[in-house]
Amino acid sequence: MLTHASLTPELALSSNIPDNLKAIATKVYAGQRITFEEGLTLYKEADLAFVGTLANFIREKKNGNYVYFNHNFHVEPTNICVYTCSFCSYSRLIKQREQGWELSVDQIMDVIKKYDGQAVTEVHITGGVVPKQDLNFYTELFTRIKKHRPELHIKALTPVEFHYIFKKAKLSYAEGLKIMREAGLDSLPGGGAEIFDKDLRDKIAGGKCSSEEWLSIHEIWHGMGAQSNATMLYGHIETFEHRVDHMDRLRNLQDKTKGFNAFIPLKFRNKENEMAHVPEVSVIEDLRNYAIARIYLDNFQHIKAYWAMIGRNTAQLSLNFGTDDLDGTIDDTTKIYSMAGSEEQNPKLSTSQLVDLIKAVGRIPVERDTLYHIVKDYSLVQP
Ligand code: V47
Ligand code: SF4
Known about the structure:
The protein has helices at 9-14, 19-29, 36-45, 48-63, 105-114, 135-148, 159-168, 173-183, 198-205, 211-223, 240-257, 283-296, 307-310, 312-318, 351-359, and strands at residues 66-70, 72-75, 80-81, 92-93, 122-125, 153-156, 187-188, 227-234, 260-267, 302-303, 325-328, 364-368, 374-377. It is of the alpha/beta class and 383 residues long. Strands 11-1-12-13 form a four-stranded mixed sheet. A four-stranded parallel sheet has the order 7-8-9-10. Helix 3 runs antiparallel to helix 12 (283-296), helix 5 (105-114) runs parallel beside helix 6 and helix 10 packs parallel to helix 11.
C-alpha cells in the first residue's frame, strides 16, 4: 500500500479553496509554468496540504515513484576561509588557523585511497577558501585522483572558490574552468548560491562572488557541455520574495542551458555562528519550501533533500512533498552541517539503511551516479 496517496486533481480543484489558489492548481495540472507572483502567492497563502498535493503530482509525473541516492563521500580540504559569511559555523578565519585544518594534496589522496575497493561513485570536494589551495593545488589534485581512480566522478568547488582562484591566477572564468575540466573536474556541486538578492547577500555573505558571478560561472560550465547543481540557503532573514527571486533566476538560466541536475534547498542551521540569534524555521516550513520549489522549478528534473542537513526523518517525509533525491551515503565525511547544529552529528548511512528508509515510505530506491544514470533499480531486485 502506498502511504503517499494525495488529493486527486479533481478533489483539489473542487474543494473549498480560494480562486487564486485554484487557478494555480489548474495550471499545474495542465503542465503550465507558474509566474513569479503565483510563486509568491503559494508562499504567502497556501498551506502544506495544498502545495504538497501539487508538488507530489509533479514529482510523480517527472520521476514516478523513484527515489535516487548515490554512493559518495566528501573531502573538505580546509575549514579556514578568507570570507566571513555570518551563517557559517564551519569556517575559521585565517587568524584562527590553529583551530582549523588545511589538507595537502598528499593528505587528500590518502582519504581518496581509503575508499579503494569500495563501491563509491562520487567524491564531493568543497570547503573554505585559502590562498594556498590555488589553481595548481586543484589541478594537481584532480589529475592525481583521475590517475589513481579514473572512474571516480569528481564533483568539486563552487563559484566562490573559482572566483577567488581564477582572479589570483589572472584567468577568465572560461579559461579557468577549461583548465579544471582538463585536469579531471567532472561536475559542480550547488554550493555558494546562498540567496541571490544583492542587499541580503551583501549582508550575510559579503565579499564573496556576486549572484551574477555565481550564475555566470554555471552558465559557462554548462556551455562546455558539463552539468551542475544549485542550492538555496533559506530560513534565516530572507523574505518569501527573496526565495522566489532566487528560484526565478535559476529557472531562467536553466531555460537557457539545461545544465542543472538538481535543486537543493538548504535549511539555515543556527548553532555557533554569527546568526545564532535567528530562530530556525519549522519542519512544516521546510516541507512547504520543498513543495513550492518543486512547483516553481518546472525545468529542474530533481529536487534533492540533503538528509545530512535536515535529518533522516524530515528527509523521508519530504519525499511526499516534491523531493525525489536524498543525496548519498556520505560516510561521515562532512562537517559543514554537524558544526551548524544538524541532528545528524555523524552523517553516515549504509546502502541498506538508505534503501530501507526509502522503502518504508512506499517508494522505490534507485542508486544513481552523479549524472543520474541508473546504477541499480531496487524494484528489479528480488527481495
Ligand atoms: O553554500 C553553510 C551551506 C553550502 C550553513 O550539490 C549552511 O549535491 C545551513 O552546497 N546552515 C555548501 N547551510 C553545501 C552544498 C551542498 C550540500 C550537499 C549537496 C550538494 C550538491 C551541495 O552549505 C554553502 C551554504 O549555503 N551552509 N553554513 C548553515 N549554518
Ligand atoms: Fe567561507 Fe563558505 Fe563558510 Fe562563507 S560559507 S565563510 S565562503 S566556508
